[in-house]
Inverse folding.
């Protein structure tokens, strides 16, 4: 009896930048691991979900690294940072901060899939206020929002945690909030529901804001 192949899902993108972009060489590498009838899911989080044969997983990761493809676990993890599509230049829009924040948090295990978003100005094209965790650059500082939801009858904007943040303070607060969620969230409890249940004021108190 021939044993069926085991596939491992990976969420893949071209890295953190302005919008979701892939280069031809990146698409060509992805094609090496896909059968003719394989379907690739494009998510609203600017990721492609691909199924990689388990025995080819490590080789695929090495090849992805060579062409600048980024890959993340699928499931109850912090997703890669969603970003806006328009810009005035990488430095002006704070993209180095977005990249560093993504490096620190993407792939962390949490009670339920968590969707972070970033935007480089108050226009908010990256939709930070309707994602689980949102960062908005305003001038030379950053604002942090949590608990947003984009769809359904419960749709609502996120709540402001703190404004006028410098990058290191932003990173620290986000990491603290993720720790609180891990320590106090119920199994498969969505982040916006956790914020509602646990309370924004209690979260602020535990991270030393009030």
């Amino acid at each position: 009896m021939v044993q069926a192949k085991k596939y491992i899902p990976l969420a893949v993108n071209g890295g953190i930048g302005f919008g979701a972009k892939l280069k031809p060489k990146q698409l060509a590498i992805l094609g090496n691991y896909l059968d003719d009838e394989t379907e690739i899911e494009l998510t609203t989080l600017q990721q492609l979900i691909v199924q990689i044969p388990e025995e080819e997983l490590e080789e695929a990761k090495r090849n992805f690294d060579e062409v600048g493809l980024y890959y993340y676990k699928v499931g109850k993890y912090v997703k890669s940072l969603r970003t806006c599509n328009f810009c005035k230049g990488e430095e002006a829009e704070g993209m180095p901060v977005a990249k560093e924040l993504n490096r620190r948090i993407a792939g962390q295990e949490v009670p339920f899939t968590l969707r972070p978003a970033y935007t480089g100005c108050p226009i908010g094209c990256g939709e930070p206020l309707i994602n689980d965790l949102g960062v908005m650059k305003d001038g030379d500082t950053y604002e942090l929002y949590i608990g947003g939801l984009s769809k359904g009858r419960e749709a609502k904007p996120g709540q402001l945690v703190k404004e006028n943040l410098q990058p290191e303070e932003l990173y620290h607060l986000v990491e603290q909030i993720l720790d609180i969620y891990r320590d106090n969230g119920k199994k498969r409890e969505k982040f916006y529901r956790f914020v509602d249940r646990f309370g924004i004021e209690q979260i602020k108190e535990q991270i030393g804001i009030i």
In short: The first strand starts at residue 7 and ends at 13. Residues 25 and 197 are 46 Å apart (CA to CA).
